Amino acid sequence: MKPTTKTLLPALATTTIITGIIGINYTIAHQLTHPKRSSISVPPNQAALIYEDISVSTPDQLNIKGWFLPAQNNGEEHLSQQTIIFAHHYGGSRTSDELGSLEFFKNFLPKGYNIIAFDFRNSGLSDGDMTTMGVSEQDDLAAIVAWCNQRIPNGQIVLWGFSMGAAVSLNSGWQFANVVGVIADSSFSDLSRYCLEALEAWAPVNPLIFSYPVFLISQYVLGIKAEKMSPLKAIKNYESCQLLLIHSHKDRIIPVQHAMELYAAANPNTCELCIFPSENHAASYFTNSDLYLQKVFAFLQRSFQTAALSPLTDDILQKRA
Q1: Residue of 109, 258, 100 lying closest to 170 (CA atoms)
Q2: pLDDT digits (tens, 9 = 90+) for 281-298
C-alpha cells in the first residue's frame, strides 16, 4: 500500500518533534559545558601585593594560567613552606569568587601562607573551550600542584575549593602526598547524581524528554565521564589528611544533603562539617565572616601542625601513588 498524506503527516510530525527535542537537548548540553568566561580583576600589584604569573601545561596540552603570591607583610616577601591553592566555581575564574578576591587573600598572606589562585580550563585566561564540570579540571589542579612542588620542594599544601572547585579538590586531593588538608565549600557529593537531580528540578516537562537526554549527550557526545567525579567515593581514601566541609543550610543550588553525605562517609577523626544558616550557594562567609574565618584559621593550623607531627607512612604513600 502506497503511503498517503494521511499516513505521512503524522510520521513527519513525529520525526520533526523528535529531531527538535534532540536539538534542544544538545543545545542545552552545549551551553552547560560552554559557560561565558569570567574576566580577571586587577592584578595583585595594584592591590599592593607581591606576585608572579604562572602557566602550567596539562596532559592534553592546555595552558593553565594563575598567580603565585608568596607569604608577605607590609610589602616584604616571606616565602613559606605552607601554601593554599584556591579552586574556583563553575563558570568562574581566579578572582570571580568573592572569597577569592585580592582583599580576601590579605587575610592569609601576613599569617605565613603562600597563595596560588588559578583559572580552570575554559575560564579566565586559561586555554580550552569546554568546561567538564570538574572531570578534566582534575588535570588542571594536578598541574598546579606539580608546579607548587617544584617551586617549594617539601612544602605542604591545603586545597580550598568552592562549588565545582570544592568537588575537584575533594576528588583529587587524596592523591597528592603533600596535600595535608582540603577545605570544600559547597561541594556536590557525586556528579552523575547531582546533574540528574539539578536537571530534573529544572526540566519544564517530563525528565525523560529533557533532563536525561541532556545528561546522556554530555556523557557520550561531549565526552564528559561523570562517573570520574564522585567525591563521595574519593573521601573514603583520605586517612591522615584533614577535611573541612562547609555548606549553606538552605543552599538552593547544591542541597546541604550533599555535604551531610560526604561527612557521613568520611573519617570522623579527620573531618569537620560546618553548616551556616544561609539560603545562598557558597555564601557561608557572608552569613558570619568572623566565624567562617575562625573555623578556617583553626583548620589551617591543625592541618599543617598535624602533618608536621605525623609524617606520611609508606602505606599511605603507596595508596596515593
Answers
A1: 258
A2: 998 998 899 999 999 999
Query: Could you tell me the pTM of the whole model?
Result: 0.86
pLDDT digits 0-9 by tens, 198-215: 766 555 555 555 555 555
Report d(CA 186, CA 245) in Å as an integer.
8
For 23, the 3-state DSSP assignment is helix
Name the grid cell of 314.
609508606
H or E element that contains 86: strand 82-87
- Structural domains in the chain, CATH included, are 1-32+192-226 (no CATH), 46-190+229-320 (3.40.50.1820)
Which residue from 177, 185, 183, 172 is spatially nearest to 156, judged by alpha carbons?
A: 177
Distance CA 91, CA 131 (A): 8
Q: Report CA-CA distances (Å) from 170 to 153, 245, 249, 254, 307.
A: 23, 10, 20, 15, 18
